[in-house]
Amino acid sequence: MSAPLILLVGMSVVVCGVLVLRLHALLSLIAGGLVVALLTPTFYTYRSLARSNANGIDSIDSPTGIVTLRAAKERPAVGSTLLVLRGRELHPVGKLQVLPGGAGESMPAKALDGFVPDRRDVVIETSKDVLAHKTSEQTAGERLGLGFGKTAGEVGILIAMAAIIGQCLLESGAAERVIVTVRRALGDDRTPLAFVLGGFVLTIPCFFETVFYLMIPLGKIMRARTGKDYTLYVMSIIAGGTMAHSLVPPTPGPLFAAGELHVNLAAMMLGGVCVGLPAAMVGLAYARWANRRWDIPLRESAGLSLTELSTAANRDVASLPPLWISIIPILLPITLIGSATVMKSIRDAQPFKAGAIYEIIQTAGNKNVALILTAAFGLAMLAWRRETRAKIGQAVQQAISGSATMILIIAAGGAFGAVLQQTDIATSLRDILPAARLSLLPIAFAITVLIRTAQGSATVAMITTAGIVSPIAAAGGLGFHPLYLALAIGCGSKPIMWMNDSGFWIISRMSGMTETETLKTATVMMGIMAAVGLGVVVLGAWLMPMI
Q: pTM score, two decimals?
């Protein structure tokens, strides 16, 4: 069975399970993932794993046999031997030896035994090739379990700590203090605009999910205080954050796309802002329309009862903590993660000896550690407010209980996405990719949309598409700067957000919206913003090709 057909079958199982049979999302995702894993041939899995762990070839000096490689997830050791695979069947055709030198992800290697490499070859460490073969021979249940565990490991601590932070923001009155300040400064009508801009700026150094965790309590408090416009507040947070996540480095997706297409980082950041903000403003316009059409109520979600929210929202303003303390749980993780990202970028550009301060910043800036430290501050804030130990313990218990179901659903979505990725859908797309240069922008956009729809992750979709189109861009003759190609890929990573995307379940479970409500609000809005973003990119490439 072909990869596109397997994709359609898997998607049908999940959609029918959730929307038709009304099964719990966890069961539907697991069922869909198991079906996909059972239908996927062993070779598809091996090829997908080999390509995902491959080192890219940037340039080849034929006379000397020196190859400039771009390291995969881990930089191979100097002197190690790399296996070179070629063709659709990925047959071994030669070997490369890693040489000293290079900086960042770039490294030189020498072809052995007179072998002549090709830029389309797959270069992989022998140990990873063995692992790819071993994994491809595992049972469907084992591969599904690996995807489940990997996703749970990536988001488990993050979600649990974020739930505690949100609970502390609400219990202490910090969220109300921020909302009261925003309302006084901007007025109720401009609060959604503040959410869009705040989400956009905060997501630049962090993942969208992290920012959504931190901002959704503000949206809930705003709804509880005004008694209306909950749909608008939630969608405003999404509109700003999701566009920055895929367009503005240093988040991984746009960072990789810029590197793969040899786009200057500063240009990518400026271009991402120029494309992302107009798209987010259109998203805000749709959010206002959707808010008038669907008045979604405020429901209990993620460990927060409506009674507690009502009590918090109606608290006396004079009893609230000062603003400077209230914003620390929001700004602290952003500052820690952003500082670590900036320091790493500086070191990659100009290598220097890492000292104790650098190591401390990198440790504290790890997203899990940053949220653990912020959760500790939130609990300290509750203690400073003279809450009893019993009440603090109850707040933690509520947060953890609410986040446990979310972690399971997201892990199931990750497992489903992992086995879909193992169908090697990217190779199928590469085989049908036309060579037309003028149409490459919408083609790159469409490929990214298909991959995002298939496996759920916007970052993976951007990385995969960038690898597919980079050889075409490197051949020259685009007629425009490759920046526009990177931005088109970023816009294409927005649609279609559905049940195999962890962000879908985070938005749904944290906001309290049903699956259908999330699809017709957030999912549709992302599609509209993506289309607007692509329009801005095409217009820019036409009016200012920059070549």
A: 0.68
